[in-house]
User: Fold this.
Amino acid sequence: MARVVLSLRDASGKNARRGQAGRFPSGRRQFEESSAVRRILIVGGGVIGTSVAWHVAERGLGEVTLIERDRLGSGTTWHSAGNITWKPVPDSDVPIEYMLELIPRLEREAGQSTGWLRTGRLFIARSPEAMDTFEGYARAAGTRGHGGVLLAPGEVGRHHPLAAEDAIVGAWLNPRSGRLNPADLVAACARAARRRGVRIEEQCTVRGLVRRGARVCGVETDRGAFEADDVVIAAGLWSRGLLAQAGLRAAHGACEHFYAIAAPSPALPRETPSFICAEDLIYGREEVGGFLVGFFDRNAKCLDAAALPEPFTFTLLDEDWDQVAAYYERACEIFPALVDAPIRRLVNGPESFTVDGHPLVGPVEGVDGLFLACAMNSAGVTFSGMVGHSVADWLADEELRFREFDCRPERFGARESDPAWVDAQMPHAPSTFYRVHNESAL
Assistant:
């Protein structure tokens, strides 16, 4: 019988085979060709878990089961802003190009809309230095034939009726951006996955990982054990606790994350471009005629996911205007109509962050059959396509398509095994993420 060996890749995404039988440090293992069906288990039914399920099923890699403790899209996905923004920077170029290509393909396969609306996005500069960055964006976008336009302060109001020209230096209008409905994205991924044979178990809580020696072979749930050859942890901010129960560490933590929804008059048109102002750590978009304004705050409020009230499914945390008032005031400088606009709601939904703003995607070093797809830094919708494709690449032992975007769980080295170090970085993680992903031009 021929022997099929799945291989470890180096950081570049290239194969790095070992010359003898044995365990692969990345979590890869040897498979004998047989009639047995490979069993792949995904823990978590949010935008990441359902994307992984569809991508893995699309490749025909085995018998796929997804387990969700409540209902699909609960936890953190449901309160996502749903923005997708292409930028000519390494982490948002090829991954977002793929996402923009994936949306219509997914909608066709699922026979369901994701609510995708291309609005464009205003990158607002409050300083000459920021405008220099956006001029670099415009040049890089132009070389790709993606269009976009640089705007003087007096021109921004033609695209966003609430913008004040005296508060900004200028802007770059990026047309390759928009938003979708996260719940619809989850539903479309799940429907397409089911059509390819994926079994989805809702209202099923994973209690822990089942290990035999140095490999994971399934999970224990409140319905009993589920056996698997490969387990993918896509449980968002609950991933850390699930891994800790098995004596494993992952370098991510949870923070409170806020956005406000105001009701300016007149109402904003649905097609109003969204905006980013990285200097002020704020972003926003139209929301049912209102104005959603979000914050990636410094000194973020950290939390222990295990201490959240149960069930924490379609649930929010308490409002805390003291935490974000300064950021909202900056938004009022750019959009003066916010000063007198009634506030519909201040949404406080926890999210999972890493120190460098990149998610944790790939095999867990030293544990066979275990993969991570978590810690999305409040960008789960944005990176859902990339993450689903990447996990499928790992499971299929194929070249990593997005290898320039380093998401390896082990990239922090020994520090990832030190919860105190990780927790000490978390208050700064949201603001660091925003600057890293929105200010670095090619």
Remarks:
- DSSP finds ten helices and 27 strands in the chain.
- Confidence is low (pLDDT under 50) at residues 1-35.
- Residues 94-110 form the longest helix (17 residues).
- The CA atoms of residues 233 and 302 lie 22 Å apart.
